[in-house]
Amino acid sequence: MSHPHGSFLGIFLLLIWSGAVKGEFYSSVDSMQDLAQVEQELINATRSYLEAQQNQLNFYRRYMEQIKREHEWAVGQLKLDEYLGHPLHAFRLIKRLVLDWDELIFETIIENKPREDFRSFVDALTKDLGYPDQSELQGAIKGLARLQRVYNLTTSDLADGVINGYHYDSELQWRESYEIGVQLFDLGEYKRSLEWLQVAFVLLRNSPLEKDENGYLSDIREYAAMANFELGNPERADRLLKQILTPEPIHSAQQTRKYLESRVTGKNVEEKNPSWFANYTRLCQGRRLPEKGSGNPLKCYLDGKRHAYFTLAPLQVEPVHLDPDINVYHGMLNSKQILSIFVEVDKEEMVRSAVAGEGGKRTVRDLRVSQQTWLNYTAPVMQSISRIVQFVSGFDMAGAESMQVANYGVGGQYEPHPDYFEVNLPKEFEGDRISTSMFYLSNVEQGGYTVFTKLNLFLPPVKGALVMWHNLHRSLDVDVRTFHAGCPVIVGSKRIGNIWMHSGFQEFRRPCNLTSDSYKSVAYRN
Ligand SMILES: *[C@@H]1O[C@H](CO)[C@@H](O)[C@H](O)[C@H]1NC(C)=O
Ligand SMILES: *[C@@H]1O[C@H](CO)[C@@H](O)[C@H](O)[C@H]1NC(C)=O
Ligand SMILES: *[C@@H]1O[C@H](CO)[C@@H](O)[C@H](O)[C@H]1NC(C)=O
Ligand SMILES: *[C@@H]1O[C@H](CO)[C@@H](O)[C@H](O)[C@H]1NC(C)=O
Ligand SMILES: *[C@@H]1O[C@H](CO)[C@@H](O)[C@H](O)[C@H]1NC(C)=O
């Protein structure tokens, strides 16, 4: 069975749909940009290669014409033996064969310098610069499957470039759908695989341009047969194989049939989701459970009294949850400050890749691990951030970790987790992470909500806003209700900055209480 693994397709998918890679929870639009650069270099190199080849062909053509003219002239002018009887003519013929043809054929045509150049370029690209491989294509496809699962996106909509009713100009070709189906099959995701194969089948069959000379419809049917078999539908599998074998009895599907006959059929197992999954997907989709006695009791308010810093520009507080208290403070950072943060992030990346890359080369793989960067509070913009966190929370920044800046690409997510450590506390800090301050540094076109899976709460990212909550009770016991998650980004790029505060320095800021319950009033309003 033909099994195309077009590298073009691989890059295409990574660029358009980047997903989590090799089991990482998120990927980064920044590393995708590096891949786009790699592709641009490939395009340039291929174009130069084709031009060089074309020039060479033109040169051969002219050269050929010249030799042909001389040959024709020779045989046309005189009888050939008379012509060759002339010592100069004999010399010229021998010279052409020994020198000219030799140069033409044995040096330029056979050596083909443009091709050698191109080959060494491709070698360098794949070896030194970092180039996506099969596992990364699988990662991208897993990312797509995850988007479908979390957001309940149908395969046919996605293939049409339709996401939640928005139409993006990026519908997939049959070959791409087929490739996704094959990869999902290899990943054991038979149900999804079958959906993508069906889309590929319909697209190919209805394509006015493709004539299916290579029998891809049969290949699709063969994969669909195997997926059906794994899903516990041996009859359907058999029917599909018959459709291939009736017109074409010597097709490789014959072996597939024998193989399946030798096996016990698969089971139609529904994948088992973890217990948090239902809450997670519901909230990621922006749906809350109706709450008893609701009629939203939480009102936004302005707070100019928390600290003198906010006298002129009062805090715009949106309390989104009580007990545990979770507040969103809007408009904390303006675009200029956010740009300054990214200037600091860029500096860090330069420092790091000079250390990690060989010979100062930036590699795609390196960037993947540097999707998060830590910034301390020395740069002016970071000093402002430090002041904001201190004045809003009332905590002493001596207990603060550096700010972690993270970039989530399409499909990038972070499954539910608490921010506290509970065990194995890091030695550099005193106490556990008492609070989280999360700055949204970008808007996200679609997806990327922050959700609290135990609290029926979702927060869409709003650029410039700060979300703050406590991870510990007043007793300093961990508050398990603070489990939260970053939903997959569907479209766009999500950037956040997290500051975790440790409890060690905060004795006078948030007195401990022996009762574990959190205190009803907003703790950090001193
Ligand atoms: C590719 O070529 C274009 C113009 O031919 C040039 O502007 C661009 O910088 C090149 N890109 C790379 C990555 O070499
Ligand atoms: C997913 O969407 C389909 C319609 O496209 C709907 O019938 C189904 O109930 C949805 N499932 C969930 C879990 O939302
Ligand atoms: C803060 O970070 C910068 C850049 O990484 C570094 O040069 C500097 O030494 C750091 N300062 C402190 C106090 O850690
Ligand atoms: C799901 O959310 C409800 C309330 O929104 C909560 O009571 C329940 O514990 C949550 N389930 C899990 C597994 O987090
Ligand atoms: C401890 O918490 C209880 C109830 O939550 C409250 O009545 C009491 O005043 C608190 N004590 C201190 C020292 O904060």
Secondary structure blueprint with pairings:
Elements: H1 7-17, H2 29-77, H3 80-85, H4 87-111, H5 113-127, H6 134-151, H7 155-159, E1 162-163, E2 166-167, H8 174-186, H9 190-205, H10 216-230, H11 234-245, H12 253-261, H13 277-284, E3 301-303, E4 315-321, E5 326-330, H14 335-356, H15 364-369, E6 372-375, H16 380-393, E7 403-408, E8 414-417, E9 433-440, E10 446-447, E11 450-452, E12 457-459, E13 466-470, E14 484-486, E15 489-491, E16 494-502
Antiparallel strand pairs: 1-2, 3-4, 4-5, 5-13, 6-7, 7-16, 8-14, 9-13, 9-16, 10-15, 11-12, 11-14
One 2-acetamido-2-deoxy-beta-D-glucopyranose binds at residues 275-276, 279, 289, 453-454, 456.
GO cellular component, one term: endoplasmic reticulum lumen
GO molecular function: iron ion binding; L-ascorbic acid binding; procollagen-proline 4-dioxygenase activity
Main location: endoplasmic reticulum
